[in-house]
Amino acid sequence: MSDPKPPPSSAPRSETVRHALLEELRRGAATAWELSTRLGMRERDVAPHLEHLARSLRARGERLSVAPARCLRCGYAFDERRSLAKPSRCPACRGERIEAPRFRVDAGEG
Q: What's the pTM value of the predicted model, to 2 decimals?
């Protein structure tokens, strides 16, 4: 006979993912792709977790800092972009070679 399955984890998966994201961001700046690779999740699933994490950090007096995405063709910086996901195309030159935004955790609101 085979061993019985272990019981499911009592902690919700989303809490574990957000805690792991926080720990990775405390180690240093990273892109969504780097975070997804380190945590074994899809890149598209990182942005919603980062948005929630940003709200949680504000409550603690910390903040999620975002170095904006940049077009590698013309240098356009996506400074005003609110979405945390990587843009698909540059509005200035229509180039698709976009450097992804980098995220990190900063202490304080400054």
A: 0.77
